[in-house]
Design brief:
With 126 residues, the chain is an alpha/beta fold. It is globular, with a radius of gyration of 13 Å. It has helices spanning 14-24, 45-51, 73-79, 84-92, 120-125, and strands at 2-8, 33-37, 55-58, 98-100, 105-106, 112-119. Helices cover 32% and strands 23% of the residues.
């Protein structure tokens, strides 16, 4: 399982989400799922439909204590994590051994971020 986690501001367009996604997946294996906080999961529907990928809705308690590669002051203030995108990607893989492939990437308009996490067991078999 390879998950693209997203963090984004209210009003982020599908262009913003796609921009962050394209930057994050450079050099990454094919993504199998998208993830974001449950209260924003519906906002990923258009991108999910374009990519033919399911969305995993992450509950806020699922990210408690997760270590992220990035430390964003705005993410800490809003959601209590260093990077919403990184935390959501990791949380979607809870119960599995997971790792981030790289720090989160920011869309060109700075409205969205995306990070890719991979199930380590899956990565070893590729």
């Amino acid at each position: 399982m390879i998950v693209a986690g997203f963090g984004f501001r209210a009003g982020a367009s599908v262009f913003s989400l796609c921009s962050a996604y394209q930057l994050a997946r450079e050099g990454a294996p094919p993504v199998t799922h998208l993830a974001t906080f449950a209260d924003k999961a519906d906002d990923l529907a258009e991108l999910a439909n374009l990519l033919f990928l399911p969305v995993i809705a992450v509950a806020p308690e699922q990210v408690v204590g997760l270590q992220t590669l990035t430390l964003s002051k705005s993410s800490l203030a809003a959601r209590g994590v260093g990077s919403v995108a990184e935390a959501c990607a990791l949380a979607a893989l809870r119960g599995r051994e997971a790792r981030l492939l790289a720090p989160r990437r920011i869309s060109q308009d700075r409205m969205a971020t995306c990070a890719i996490a991979q199930d380590i067991a899956q990565g070893a078999s590729q």
